[in-house]
Amino acid sequence: MKRLLLVAAIAASLAGCATTTSPTGRRQIVGGVSESQLAQLGAQAFAETKAKTPQTKDAHQSAYVRCVVQQVVAQLPPDWQRLSWETAVFVDSSPNAFALPGGKVGVNTGIFTVAKNQDQLAAVVAHEVGHVYSHHHDERITRQLQAQFGLNVAAAILGGRYGEGAANATSQLGGIAAQTLFLLPNSRTQESEADVVGQQLMARAGFDPRQAVDLWENMIAASRSRPPEFLSTHPNPEARIQELGNRAASLVPVYQQARSSGHTPRCG
């Protein structure tokens, strides 16, 4: 009965799903949760991270990151700019950053070891903002709900016919299959899309899009190991660098036009 109730709850949530188009023209299925729920989840996750991880006391670092975020966000449509964008710099040696629905951006101090200048930091920030702008969190949650719905339907059917053991096995094995074959490939697609959107945003903000290549070269140099591409949520680094380089060539005129129009960031 509990399993059937869960199936019914997930089905009700999925009834509100819709098809939309990402900034790059890719078809997306979103709507598993509402925009307000997404913003609430983002705010909650951000608050939890701030509670668990100390923030830098270096005022220059905080101002530096905030400046880059502001320049990138200024290139979004007006309704996106009006979000309550908030930044935090966490004392963490891992070179990482993230952005969450509702306009929350977090950067680890470790990012400064690979982002050597404001353009490279903008490549990181714009990529993460690109995830939010492209509704990737919404899409990801919706797909997970779809996967969970299918697994629970199968488990309910098999459980009724063959017992609880079969139902549990279906849920566990199915979860592994869904994660490997369905959810992870989608995440790689999102990462590639965030590269495209982020590089466009940084160029329009007056940051050099060619510096995204240098950033990822620094990332590779600083990385001792990485999981195989098949099980990775990120594209192959070498292929990623090549794509970033090819795209940068077409975005240089955008960057130059932005600079001539007065978009000359002086963040760090």
TrEMBL record:
It comes from the Bacteria. Binds 1 zinc ion per subunit. Its cofactor is Zn(2+). Keywords: Hydrolase, Metal-binding, Metalloprotease, Protease, Signal, Zinc. Residues 60-247 form the Peptidase M48 domain. Residues 1-18 form the signal peptide. PROSITE patterns: PROKAR_LIPOPROTEIN (PS51257). It holds the Pfam family Peptidase_M48. PANTHER family: M48 FAMILY METALLOPEPTIDASE, METALLOENDOPEPTIDASE OMA1. Belongs to the peptidase M48 family. This is M48 family metallopeptidase.
